[in-house]
Amino acid sequence: MHSRIRECQGWLVPYDIENKRNHMKKYFYCLIIALFIPVWVSAQEEAGDIADIWSYPVVYQYTEQVSWYFDLAGTTFAEDEDVYIWIWSPSEPDAGNWENSSEFAKLSYEGDFIWRFDLVPTEYFNVTAEDIANSAGFWLRLKNKDGSKQSGVGNVPVTSFNDFFTADEMIRSYPTKPAIDEGLSILFNSNLVDGFDGATSVHMHSGLNDWEVEQQYQVWIPEVVEKTKLKDMGNGFYKMDLIPEEYFPVPEDYVMENMTFLFVKNEWEATTPDQKLIAADVVPPPPPVFSFFPLKISQKDILGMRRIYNERGVTTLHYIITAGSKEISGEFSGDKNEIKGFVDLVTELEGLTGLNSIHVVVTDNNDRLITETDIPLVELDQY
Amino acid sequence: MKKTCIYVLLFLLVLPFEGCYQTDDGSYVAPITIYEKINGSWSLDELTLVDEYAKSNAITPDNEVLTSFFNFQNFNIQFNVDASNQPTTFEVTGDVPALFLMSGYWSLSSSYPNTNLSAVRINLYADAAKTQIVDQLRLTSIPGAQDVMEIQLVRASSGTAFASYVFNLSPAN
């Protein structure tokens, strides 16, 4: 474009002072041409800026298959229009084809003005992961095939998680608070968990809202084994990528409050402790608190048990008290806020002698152990 | 002015003789004892289990209301006295846990409120001779203008209270 303007200026060099009128005419035409040339040359429509760019998986290694999503709502790209990527950093795979983009640069339409582009970065850019890491990042425009329409310059944001490999963190998630309809990446350092040495595969056993909706790790179902399998990043590091509403069999409009999970080695040979991620926009409830009441008891007292801030779905506590040869069992019910009840040790332990303590096991209605403990029985003063 | 002075003088002269009238003091009546006040049948308004250990260590919760558990809403205690207002037997009814001796004999550590404001003790005995205290209750609120009574059963070990049961009672109908 600029070179043509320079040419145009070149016509003016043979300056003819005798033919001033003629010259003025030429100058005028030249000016007209100069004004219109940029339009003819680029003949380009500015479609507007890309509204949003994100990736799935949320975090990924450059050697991994990834999908980039582009929201073109608000641009002049029409729904279902063929859109191509023109990317020049970290390298320019479709160089020289501005006016006729290659098929490999074509995006697929996802609906709702969102287009998707799948790639393995190291393969697409034909560079090493290190080259990409040291580059300026992913800089691009989206365009139509002949280049007559282009978006503003966009950048695919990349979240580096390299520090995880040296952070001595067992679990880290991106984002820290997941949303039900958005991607979630969970990183796992199995080197920090006993028994995970030499794992051939690591799987996730998980649920939403305190195990209300589950995706169990069922070793006898091949599809489930595959679905629950973490990506092996080498050296004992693993990654799980999922979108909760797709991963879990949830009904429509399900409200996710949290996601609970644990990682399993091979066929349940070792497990991590239970983990919990609180969903975005959910105020995390205080952790459950179980307590006995009063804090000291004798054989002639009433023993209270109380659990507050219960997880969803926990409505009952079952207790088994062993006192010498006697076993007392029962249950208390309540709700999310509080489950409370009392045991009449006075009557139950009447006549038993030589008791120094009682053994108490409390489980919830989901068969999860709440507490297992020995409570000493205080010896009462005589009057 | 002179007249007024005379009236005042007359009044002052008469005044000393007013005290010369003999009033009737009546016969001697013994002061009302606590036995008279708590004699009878009392039913439970509220039973609270206080965690004295938690309370002294500022841990919450330090009390729980037990009224609605184990039939305690039917708790009733009857203190009997003889014709001379001396304690005889007592009995707890209502099919409740036997936190203390359910029936037997009783006495008070003092027939009158203690001058040092400490609670009078209700001693409970299994035998009529009242040789050995089986359990002891503290009378923490004596019925008076308000016809309510509060008794406390303290659980202690090595002299330190770790829990107590507070019974709020009112006369049974």
Description:
The complex is a heterodimer of chains A (383) and B (173). Chain A is of the alpha+beta class. Chain A has helices spanning 2-10, 20-42, 121-124, 129-134, 222-227, 244-247, 345-348, and strands at residues 45-48, 52-56, 66-71, 84-89, 108-111, 114-119, 138-143, 149-151, 154-156, 171-174, 184-189, 202-208, 213-215, 231-234, 237-242, 258-265, 270-271, 275-278, 289-293, 302-308, 316-323, 326-333, 338-344, 357-364, 369-376. Chain A is elongated, with a radius of gyration of 34 Å. Chain A starts with a helix and ends in a 7-residue tail after the last strand. Mean pLDDT of chain A is 88; it is low at 1-15. Chain B has a single domain (34-171), classed as Lipocalin (Beta Barrel). Helices cover 13% and strands 40% of the residues of chain B. An eight-stranded antiparallel barrel of chain B has the order 1-3-4-5-6-7-8-9. In chain B, a hairpin with a 7-residue loop joins strand 7 (133-141) and strand 8. The mean pLDDT of chain B is 86. At the A-B interface, strand 20 and strand 23 of A face helix 3, strand 7 and strand 8 of B.
